[in-house]
Amino acid sequence: MAEQKTAYHHGDLPRALKSAALDLISEHGVTGFTLREAARRAGVTHAAPYRHFSDKSALLAALAEDGFSELRRRLEEAADQAGDDPLARFVSLAPAYVRFAVEQPSYFRVMYGFDAPDKMKYERLGEADDAAFAVLVEGVRMAQEKAAFIHGDTQRIAILAWLMVHGLAHAHIDGALTRRGIDADNIDEALAQGSELMMRGFLAGSG
Amino acid sequence: MAEQKTAYHHGDLPRALKSAALDLISEHGVTGFTLREAARRAGVTHAAPYRHFSDKSALLAALAEDGFSELRRRLEEAADQAGDDPLARFVSLAPAYVRFAVEQPSYFRVMYGFDAPDKMKYERLGEADDAAFAVLVEGVRMAQEKAAFIHGDTQRIAILAWLMVHGLAHAHIDGALTRRGIDADNIDEALAQGSELMMRGFLAGSG
DNA sequence: ACCTGAACACCGTTCAAGT
DNA sequence: ACCTGAACACCGTTCAAGT
Fewer CB within 10 A of the end CB, N or C, for chain B? Predict the structure, then answer.
């Protein structure tokens, strides 16, 4: 998985660097990722990355951007597979989100860590984030329009829905849940219970 | 705020280092915190910290531990000021939690960042975390016992309640909310709406 | 256009030595 | 018991130079 150094030299160095960075993050966390080590693994000198990324955080920003694109793809896929019912589509987003976090924790870390690249500074990154979030907003909008979903500011409601799911994914990744009895075996169950609680709040006027 | 170097030399170097570290984190993030710079600000040589902390992450762990103690203090204070009604006590925890995150973002970052010190490795840190979380669990337990609160696993329900509030605080600190129209001016309003939604889910059998 | 190699100013950590 | 100073193996970033 890291032995094909030969092709990179006139090949796709940006891709090779991002791939190495992702490996490093899963091995040692974002803090443990190093531009020089990534260059080494890509079979290239420590100064070479600067031909493709202006600095370390630019590489992380590119990585996070890829992550948001993938997240968006997964959310859209989940909604599409859920069919036409607006509530079913909305509810399907939660497990898709959590599954992404669990299967791609390294992406999740660069996307949402405290020291993640600044979404204001890296414009394309901010746009990728917005595009993924837009799937959720659209889910709320349709549910408000065609189902008994709570009224009010669509974006605000989408944020509140996102928070719990995001919190679950986040806390699971950094082990906060495992220490409290929620692990890979029952995270789906916890998520289902959480979704149910949330939906009870979101369904306007239902008992 | 950083000019009293003179007293430290035979004074309280651990405290001085933690204080400098906290300043550095608020200036440059956890990533930007450096043991050498903290030593410099404490008026001491770069090797001196090793007499008090085994390494960099041990200092961060001590800092996070302080943060959890302070959070616990605030949660207990909020509940006590809310009086005797179990629901009022429970509901009062949310704004107290968010206020801590907003007022002490540097503590929050060391406590809950992805690369935060390992709560398994640093035993006292894990205990401080548990002690803060226990306030929330106790709130749920009392609400279940003396009010129309949803039944089921107390700890599990406490986690779900925590997730949304934690997610709100977390997302606010790293700017994810500001980009979506929630800032210091209306975070209380968003929190209130979120709490209301949550409570609708938590209150068993109510319409 | 893309990469190398030397250079600079930083780190974390260790260790002998000082008081 | 606590701190210093030198040392080592690392970083991120820049820049002249090579192809």
Answer: N
